[in-house]
Every structure is written in structure tokens, then in C-alpha cells.
Amino acid sequence: MNYRIIPMALLLTVMVTLPAGAQKKKAVINDSNTPLHLLQPGYQGKYGELTPEQVKTDLDRVFTYVDRETPARVVDKHTGKVITDYTKLDVNSQLERGAFRLASYEWGVTYSAMMAATETSGDSRYMDYVKNRFRFLAEVAPHFKRVLEEKGDTDPQMKQILTPGALDDAGAVCAAMIKASLKDRTLPVQGLIENYFDFIVNKEYRLADGTFARNRPQLNTLWLDDMFMGIPAVAQMSLYADKAQAKHQAEAVRQFLQFAERMFIPEKGLYRHGWVESSSDHPAFCWARANGWAMLTACELLDVLPENHPQRDKVMAYFRAHVRGVTALQSGEGLWHQLLDRNDSYLETSATAIYVYCLAHAICKGWIDPIAYGPVAQLGWNAVSGKINAEGQVEGTCVGTGMAFDPAFYYYRPVNVYAAHGYGPVIWAGAEMIRLLKTLHPKMNDSALQYYTTKQATAAPIFSVPTAE
Fold first, then answer.
1. 266: cis peptide before it, omega within 30°?
2. Contact at 8 Å (CB) between 300 and 248?
3. pLDDT for res 2
4. Nearest-5° angle of CA 315, CA 127, CA 98?
5. How far is residue 95's CA from residue 99's CA, in Å, rounded to a whole number?
6. Phi, psi dihedral angles at 441 (to 5 degrees)
7. Phi-psi region of 425 (alpha: psi -120 to 50; beta: other; left: phi over 0)
8. What is the DSSP string of 195-261?
9. Which residues pair with 223 in a beta bridge?
10. What sign does the CA torsion over 333, 337, 342, 346 have?
């Protein structure tokens, strides 16, 4: 059952009405007359047992919204007229504008999440969404490329696909396209994958040791975000290009460890957001979503690395230390703070959703303990669920965020329902919660959620687990 806020005054005292003429007395609930431990806590929001069907209801509401807001059509930007003959595209042709872009890194996350939703729920609409958008992009790309070559310009959204200029443009969508292609080899995305991957491995700026880097806001800066923007695509390519499997695995691991060695803070169990090569000190602003990208990168890499890979244990050790650091900072409401270790910063949705996915996924994979982390994941999901409004929009998501070396920048980043960063993580988190709830058996025991490996049949509010015979 789900517990909601109950005024404590109603729980602690009752008024007893005596017969007419008698004096009214207040009967006080106390330790002598009432089992106080059975009083229901005033949990904030939803708390308690959860079913896959409840999670799926939330996911469907988000899906309906994003499906409507991401049309797959080409239009004339002046008249709005739909163009179906792509041979006639010109400089006035563009992808129809919905609320979200079809090939941003945020939507690369969404495509991966959609595939997971079909896998765990059995609902083919989510995978169909991915296939339909990828087929559309693959079909129109050559025609927009022709316009770009002939006229020197084309739709900015298509230019991002055709001529990526940063890992943000390439990595997440490339990884999602590889995953989709591995599921359905008829998808005509090979050319797009090759173009994206060429940028990632051959054109992206790097430090002298080969680590993905940027020259903003300072020369030779590492962004924690770029772990996710680059590494999962390299890891996935090891599955896609069989002949280069070892090479791509080695590069993915090398990138992961070179980021982690500079940016992981062992005493916190968290990652700093930025690292500047020329700086003598490296401030630790532990931005929540960037830590989410790092944790998600570890999951994506561990999913690909074989059990006997020589560096797998090292990657796993970073992942588990990060899990311990992050979970220790979850708020009582279930969300995590914008700056993880500063609980006066606001509570943020997209990072919370990423952590929920990673924790649920790691439990299902057997990487972390379900007793310790199952309730954390479920508390986080319940908090995320409360941020999905009636229209299917995700509330409380921080907008796109650069890098800074003072706290005010992070404290005052706006939140917006049109911040695309929230949608993929929420769908991915829900998809993995469905898997988790089908795998393990959460049950209320003494007003607390517990995770069990076997179903507990009792209806008692407090119970002991039967010993093995």
C-alpha cells in the first residue's frame, strides 16, 4: 500500500464523546493502551509497495506526451507545409519542430530508454518509436546533406547529425543507434553510425594522453558529462564491429579510468564536475546529473565487458564506491540534491531518475546488494513518479548546464518541463524498475520497505522471515 501524509495530531489523540450529560474527556493514546509502533509514519509523497503495472502507467503517460511532441516530418520553415518528396528539399526545408529535438544527446538517452521499456514491459510501441525515428532520420539525411553541399547551409538540427562538432552531438545517439541496429539489422542506420563514430574516435579534441576533452570554459578541461557522451558509444561499437572488439573495449576502459583517476573523490565517493589540466587545485562541485552520467557510463561499460576482462574489477570497484557515495546522500523525499553534498541546493529530477535506473539495473545484474539498495531505488522512483504531471511532462529537471567553479552557478540553474534531459532518464528508470519488481519481492515490514529474494506471503504488519528448514 502507499502511505501518504497523515497529521500526527490525529494519530496521537482521539476525542471520545460520552453519553449526553456526561463530561467530555480526551483519551490520550499512550504506551500503555496502544502499540505506538503501529502508528503510520507521515511519509512525504508515496511510500510502500509498488507494482510493475503502476510503474507502466507512469511510463505510458510520459510516452504519450513525447510521442506527440517529437514529429518525424519535414516541412517548409516558412509555410509549414509537409514535404514528402525529399528530392525537392532546399534551404527552407527543416525537420518539423516539436518540443524536443530528434537527434540531441538527450534524445539519444531517450532512444536507449525506449528500447529498455519494450524489453521489460513487452510493449512494442516504445521500440517502434525508436525504429520509426531512426528510419526517418536515415532516409532524410542524404537529401539534407545534398542541400548542405550545394548551398553551404541546411537545417541546424540536421547539420548536427551530418557534421557533429562535439561529443554532445554524436555519442549518445550513436550508442542508441548501435543498440537498435543490434536488435534489428534492417534499420538503415549504418551510414549515420559510421559518421558519428568517425567524429568520436578521430575528430574529438583530446588531452595528450588521449582523454576526451574540451577547451571551454578553460583550455584542456575535462567534463564529467563526456564520460557518457563518448564512452558508451565506443563500448557498444565493440559489439557492432566484431573484428575490432578488443580494440574498442580497451579504448572504452582506458577513457573510463583516465576520467575516474582525475575526477573521482574517494573520501566522498563522488565525482567532481570539472577538471582543468593547468589548475593547481581542482574544486569539487559534485553536480548531480554529471554524477548520473558517470554512474550510467559505468553501467553501460560493465554491460559490455566480458567477465574475464582484466580491467573489469577496477571499473566495478569505481562503480560500487560511487553507489555508496551517492546513496548516502539521498533525501528523505527520495530525490537527490542539485549539488549532491550540499543539502540546501534544490532537489533535482533527472539525476534522481538516472540513479534509480543504475541502482535497479545493478541489482538485477547482481552487482550490488538488493537488501541495501532496493529500497533506495524504489524510494527514488516514487519521488520521480511524483514529478510526472497529468500531461506526462517531467517537472523539476535542471536545464542544460555548463561548468563553473562557484556554488551559485549550480544553485540557481533553472528547472523547466522542456528540459529534455529528464525524459530519457525517467523512462529508463521506470523500465528498469519494472524489471526489478518482476525479479525481487518488496514488502512492507514494520512500516519500512524491505526487499526479499523470495515472496513473503504474510499479511502481518511486522513479521520475521522463516528460517530455512
1. no
2. no
3. 52
4. 100
5. 12
6. -135, 85
7. alpha
8. HHHHIIIIIS-B-TTS-B-B-SSSTTEEETHHHHHHHHHHHHHHHHSGGGHHHHHHHHHHHHHHHHH
9. 274
10. negative
Is the Cα torsion angle 59, 116, 331, 415 positive or negative in sign?
negative
Instruction: Report which of 288, 423, 286, 440 is spatially closest to residue 361, judged by C-alpha positions.
Output: 440
Angle at 200 between CA 340 and CA 290, to 5 degrees: 5
**Helical (H) or strand (E) element with 83:** strand 82-83
pLDDT score of 44 = 85
Residue 236 to residues 94, 201, 231, 435, 458: CA-CA distances in angstroms?
A: 30, 13, 9, 22, 44
Q: Is 19 exposed, middle or buried (0-12, 13-18, 19+ CB in 10 A)?
A: exposed
Instruction: Give the residues of the chain that fall short of pLDDT 50.
Output: 1, 3-18
The rounded distance, in Å, linking the Cα atoms of 445 and 464 is 9
| Gap between the Cα atoms of 175 and 80, Å rounded | 32
Amino acid letter, residue 60: D
> For the whole model, what pTM was predicted?
0.93
Question: Are the C-beta atoms of 331 and 403 separated by less than 8 Å?
Answer: no
- Check residue 5 and give its pLDDT: 41
What is the spatial distance between Cα 270 and Cα 329, in angstroms, rounded to a whole number? Answer: 10
What is the DSSP secondary structure assignment for residue 82, as one 8-state letter?
A: E
Neighbouring C-beta atoms of residue 158, cutoff 10 Å: 24
Question: Residue 456 carries which side chain, given as an amino acid letter?
Answer: Q
Q: Cell numbers at residue 378, please?
A: 524504489
Task: Tell me, rounded to whole angstroms, the distance of Cα 106 from its chain centroid.
Answer: 10
Per residue in 332-378, pLDDT (tens digit) is 999 999 999 999 999 999 999 999 999 999 999 999 999 999 999 99
DSSP 394: B
Strand bridging mode 221-223 / 82-83: unpaired
Q: Report which of 64, 14, 18 is spatially closest to residue 39, judged by C-alpha positions.
A: 14
d(C-alpha 379, C-alpha 38), whole Å: 21
Q: What is the DSSP string of 103-160?
A: TSHHHHHHHHHHHHHHHHH--HHHHHHHHHHHHHHHHHHHHHHHHHHHHS---HHHHH
Picking from 56, 368, 187, the residue whose alpha carbon sits closest to that of residue 377 is: 368
Residue 420 CA to residue 424 CA, distance in Å, equals: 8
- Parallel, antiparallel or unpaired: strands 336-337 and 274-276: unpaired
The partner residues of 287 in beta bridges, in order of sequence, read: 339
End-to-end Cα, the chain, rounded Å:
31
Q: Which amino acid is located at 455 in the chain?
A: K
